[in-house]
């Protein structure tokens, strides 16, 4: 460990110092990206945001080329920066945010007491900025690196349904994938993420008077209430499996047997085996009253990512140690597109974006003083040995 730390230490400290000397510039570039609103649901703003990002990356990465894969909401921006060494690393990010158009008017990018705020600053515009600066730093300092392929989609916050196959194809053959999703503290890396299964179940029963004619009715509400009990029983917190019936609606009046009900379910699983167990148990369940019809729609939006990439984790540990920062490896319940690329067989390290907190919330923020450390972490991971 000691020798590895020494080997990478000089270079990563040089990158950190290079970034620290340009921190105002880094923050200015972050301000432009945050104030360029990119809600997942607004194709016009997303296209404008992609143009801003592309122009900036091409300008910052000398000799790079950009292309757009696919079209529409699932389109993926690809920027290639040829390297001085063999191999290719993928930097993966998303441009879209969960915030509606106009949010930036109410609370534009601002830095107060060393904390940057603004819609999407943490998830994940600061991550994009760090990734771009990490490559720029290596090149400015003439440090050898493999080729880098930046992939940025714009439908991540709505499930990456259009972009996922484009991401898998564009990342195929890469040596590793570094995901620019938010971190936590200066040393955070994310080494595994649960899979997310999303289902909607619609029950159709038979309406009847609850007093005069109850046996003529078949309650859709009762069926989904029973299914709720069944699903809650499938959770296994020790195995990392959680089940949340987040939405449950149905019926019209207390004295009417409900002919309609609907539920939305969120399942998280750490392993493929657990994901399959819950799926099978959901599919196998049938209402006690066979006159109620169930329609089940949905599936695993992102598969479990349970196999950390040990080489990347130890590399991150060594880079951080050389900067005097303790590594903070986390396994988290939230999924990302890292799950999709890990399932495609690629070594993935995630959570390499900014330190801060409050993703998807108004108190979202980024710790400005940690940006150079996080840029140096990325640069160290990109440069490898
Ligand atoms: Zn994100």
Descriptors for this entry?
2 domains, 6-stranded mixed beta sheet, 385 residues, alpha+beta, single chain, 11 helices, binds zinc ion, 37% helix, Alpha-Beta Plaits, Peptidase_M20_dimer, M20/M25/M40 family metallo-hydrolase, Aminopeptidase
Write a structural description.
The chain is an alpha+beta fold and 385 residues long. The protein is built from eleven helices and 18 strands. The protein has helices spanning 2-21, 23-35, 43-60, 103-106, 121-140, 164-171, 220-232, 272-284, 310-322, 337-343, 371-383, and strands at residues 65-69, 76-81, 88-94, 110-112, 115-117, 147-153, 176-179, 188-193, 195-204, 208-209, 242-250, 256-257, 260-269, 293-302, 328-332, 348-349, 356-357, 365-367. The longest helix is centred in the N-terminal third of the chain and has 20 residues, at 2-21. The radius of gyration is 24 Å and the shape is elongated. The chain starts with a helix and ends with a helix. Zinc ion (ZN) binds at residues 94, 123-124, 156, 181. Zinc ion (ZN) binds next to helix 5.
């Amino acid at each position: 460990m000691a020798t590895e730390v020494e080997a990478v230490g000089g270079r990563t400290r040089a990158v950190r110092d290079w970034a620290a000397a340009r921190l105002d510039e880094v923050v200015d570039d972050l301000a432009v990206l945050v104030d360029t609103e990119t809600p997942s649901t607004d194709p016009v703003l997303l296209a404008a945001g992609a143009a801003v990002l592309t122009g900036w990356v091409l300008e910052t990465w000398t000799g790079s080329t950009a292309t757009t894969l696919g079209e529409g909401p699932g389109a993926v921006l690809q920027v290639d920066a040829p390297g001085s060494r063999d191999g290719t690393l993928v930097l993966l990010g998303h441009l879209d945010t969960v915030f509606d158009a106009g949010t930036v008017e109410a609370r534009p990018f601002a830095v107060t007491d060393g904390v940057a705020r603004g819609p999407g600053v943490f998830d994940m515009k600061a991550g994009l900025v760090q990734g771009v600066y990490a490559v720029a730093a290596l090149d400015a300092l003439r440090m050898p690196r493999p080729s880098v392929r930046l992939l940025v989609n714009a439908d991540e916050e709505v499930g990456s349904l259009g972009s996922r196959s484009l991401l898998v194809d564009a990342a195929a053959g890469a040596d590793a994938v570094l995901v620019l999703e938010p971190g936590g503290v200066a040393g955070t890396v994310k080494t595994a993420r649960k899979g997310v299964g999303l289902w909607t179940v619609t029950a159709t029963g038979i309406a009847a008077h609850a007093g005069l004619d109850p046996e003529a009715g078949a309650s859709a509400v009762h069926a989904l209430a029973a299914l709720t009990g069944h699903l809650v029983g499938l959770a296994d917190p020790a195995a990392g499996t959680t089940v949340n019936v987040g939405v449950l609606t149905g019926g019209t009046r207390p004295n009417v047997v409900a002919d309609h009900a609907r539920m939305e379910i969120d399942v998280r699983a750490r392993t493929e085996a657990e994901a399959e167990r819950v799926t099978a148990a959901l599919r196998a369940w049938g209402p006690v009253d066979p006159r109620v019809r169930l329609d089940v729609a949905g599936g695993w939006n992102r598969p479990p990512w349970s196999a950390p990439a040990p080489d990347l984790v130890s590399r991150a540990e060594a880079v951080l140690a050389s900067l005097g920062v303790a590594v903070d490896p986390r396994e988290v319940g939230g999924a990302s597109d890292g799950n999709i690329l890990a399932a495609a067989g690629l070594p993935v390290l995630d959570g390499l974006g900014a330190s801060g907190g409050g993703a998807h919330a108004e108190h979202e923020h980024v710790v400005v003083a940690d940006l150079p450390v996080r840029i140096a972490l990325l640069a160290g991971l990109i440069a490898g040995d």
